[in-house]
Amino acid sequence: MASTQQVALVTGASSGIGRETALALVKAGFTVVGTSRDASRSTPLDGVTFFDLDVTEEASVSALVEQVIGRFGRIDVLVNNAGIGLMGAAEENSVAQVRGVFDINVFGVMRMTKAVLPHMRALGRGRIINLSSVYGLIPGPYLAAYVASKHAVEGYSESVDHEVREHGVRVLLVEPGGTNTGFEANSTRPDSPLRVYDKQRRIAEQVLAAAVEGGDTPATVARAVVAAATDSKPKQRYTSGPLASRVSMLRRFAPVRIFDGQMRKSHRLAN
């Protein structure tokens, strides 16, 4: 029997942004399901039911959605948070590394979206909230594969939103800036490093580490997700934190030449 309480499903909920989002959705009144690759090793969270999920496996995605529907009868909100980073110059990253990033960051979003959409359409309502990044709006030297994955999420989300809106479903984006989650430390390094890129790669790593260390808390991003989940007239995009808001504004209104110059200056790249 379907629950009358709205159900939110958060991928990658064992730490960082996912963890804070799950807790914030509990406080907002949702029944919350969180996922991790091995739910038995996840730290218990009050009000959050954990299930196993590997977003790179069709069978795992299907099994999870069936479990949630079987137990709670509905999925009102999906938060696609699971993701990974990859650093290095594009020439230093193998295609296998890039494929791994896209399998989680892009195809994982697509698998989850396709799995929940039939249930949301049956309800006549639902929200799919995809965690993008300011890097979905701007370039990122020495983060090309990660940046490409977030640009893909942006285009996919906006396109699918137009397809499903008439069925009562919205596909929305949350775009954090630097967030204090250990993203830089946990990002994969290039599998084919080249000495010619050593100096600039190290600078890029320092720039990213500083942005993460001085960034917003995961709770700031979680508040944006809750707004996307609950606003009566939701926006297509929710920036999270002051840096993301400034970058989004600059990208829209600053001349390309000025934006390009600022990007190169911040990364100490020669003009």
From TrEMBL:
Domain of life: Bacteria
Pfam families: adh_short
Gene Ontology MF term list: oxidoreductase activity
Keyword tags: Oxidoreductase
Family named by the database record: Belongs to the short-chain dehydrogenases/reductases (SDR) family.
NCBIfam families per record: PRK06179.1 (NF004823)
Protein name: Short-chain dehydrogenase/reductase
Species annotation: Rhodococcus oxybenzonivorans
